[in-house]
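Thanks for the sequence, V.! I ran AbrB/MazE/SpoVT family DNA-binding domain-containing protein right away. Repeating your input here for the record:
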Amino acid sequence: MNAPRTSRTFKSGNSVALRLPKSLGIEAGVEMTVREERGRFIVEPVKAERKIDISGFAGKIPWLKLLTPEDREFEERELDWDCKKLNRDG
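Predicted structure:
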């Protein structure tokens, strides 16, 4: 664990601010959460949740149809995975 560092609060607009030392390795612009637990303040980076909203995709490609269970069936066949043949043919 790293040694404790001391910093002093200061006024910034209508808020009280605290500078975090550069030696902590926190980049500028990182979104942080601050919470109070039993008289202590916990400061943590916000976990980035990468979510993709796909609700707007419906209807964008009307010609695309879902496969039916019958369309997903295929004939079983033995595959020839001989790499020497693949190199000669390709």
